[in-house]
Amino acid sequence: MEHPSDEAEFALPRSRAANERLHALIPGGAHTYAKGDDQYPEYLAPVISHGRGAHVWDVDGNRYIEYGSGLRSVSLGHAHPRVVEAVRRELDRGSNFVRPSVVEADAAERFLATVPTAEMVKFAKNGSDATTAAVRLARAATGRPRVALCADHPFFSTDDWFIGTTSMSAGIPDAVNELTVAFPYGDLAATEALLTRYEGEVACLILEPATHTEPPPGYLAGLRALADRHGCVLVFDEMITGFRWSEAGAQGLYGVVPDLSTFGKALGNGFAVSALAGRRDLMERGGLRHGGERVFLLSTTHGAETHSLAAAMAVQSTYTEEGVTARLHALGERLAAGVREAAAGMGVADHLIVRGRASNLVFATLDEEGRPSQEYRTLFLRRLLAGGVLAPSFVVSGALDDADIDRTVDVVAQACAVYRKALDAGGPGPWLGGRPVKPVFRARA
Fold this sequence. Notes:
By secondary structure, this protein is of the alpha/beta class. It is built from 16 helices and 13 strands. The relative contact order is 0.15.
């Protein structure tokens, strides 16, 4: 079946049944909250059968152009041949042993050649383990208890030091929450005031070096200077910026070197691999060649599965040899220009807002008063889905082509026409089709 074309005929009976199965067996019906069916219009949460390139098919047989693939992890496209072949070569050779594989050395050398600002690297399976290891290492190196994180960035870890700061803090003791403090992005004076208030207590500053806006001039260098002056560790969370900003991450693009950095998502093109990288003197505290107290840095049974490391090496080779980052930016620029033109043409340019670096586009849906609206997001997502576009964001993959972008812009234009009708009618109620989509972080189910 091709893309659905008429919302009146668009139904997902098999996906609906599969969602019921998922909820009966898995808390939340998904293994990532951001993939939950509460993030989609009611009864229109497709359950995926398979994907190839920039397209995915649901269990009902509908094909979609997909954005934000795998929560930004599949940046080359699904089942990318170079990655699949690299993985396949390792599968027949065994994936996990009682001693390190030579693949681990190969993967470390490949990573450090790609991210030359780092001196050592250790691999894991998910981003949370890497960021928490960075926090633990910073605390051990400084002897300080507090973590200072950027309040304007949405997610750092599933672990208590971060989740305790969110509205889903159930189960986390107040004593843990009190050890995490926050600073605003782009405001060096406020960050210095925080470090002065907790002088000698802050182990690290942790942030995404860039998100939907570019760092203010001198900001990252200023943070580097603040961390040095106050004796804390500077940690860049490069889960998203890694590869999408440059092959060497934001640190490679902006020329500011953190003490530690964490990578994931695009690193494996969907295979489970993440990395903690940084200064040798810090990283070695988790090793055996030093005389100090040992730090339990990262130690995971599956952290060095050979096929995942092979995937990571193939991803890095593909990026550097084929100019993937430049392609992501070009595709994103074409998409952003098309969406903005479509929104303007339908009179909703002030309500459907595209933001972010071209390789990492998101959109905001605003109501009649210019306020963020989950109801209008629901309307917009319904129309996109009916047009065969699965887009919780507009984050592109390298597998998209110009025809995909043009098709997406056409569907966006149709969605914007309905958006305009809803604005003129004073609200999107008749076009919702059920409850509105919900934010990920909320206190109640």
